[in-house]
Write a structure and sequence with these properties.
Number of helices: 2
Helix content: over 70%
Distance between the termini: 14 Å
Length: about 90
């Protein structure tokens, strides 16, 4: 029987990599908020200018930016869930 667990001190630079990943998650969340604001503006402009195509694109952008924020925020939980499921196989 082989029993292997993740080793957080096995390679040099692991802590720096964790810092980089955390920074990328932060940038992703900030960009998701920016995309949400821009999409809301596009939706409002499309609705007020009687442009259904532009309003639809704004709605789509709003949903995509919300989905991106959920994925960025839940990334660690999703990976941990996958790790747990994988350990039970």
């Amino acid at each position: 029987m082989i029993d292997i667990d993740p080793n957080s001190s096995g390679l040099p630079g692991i802590e720096q990599l964790r810092t980089i990943v955390g920074a990328v998650m932060t940038v992703g969340l900030i960009l998701s908020v920016l995309a949400l604001i821009i999409s809301a503006i596009i939706w409002a402009y499309g609705s007020n200018s009687s442009n259904p195509h532009l309003a639809g694109r704004g709605k789509t952008g709003l949903l995509i930016s919300c989905g991106a924020a959920v994925i960025c925020g839940a990334a660690v939980a999703l990976v941990n869930f996958g790790w747990t499921v994988g350990q039970q196989v």
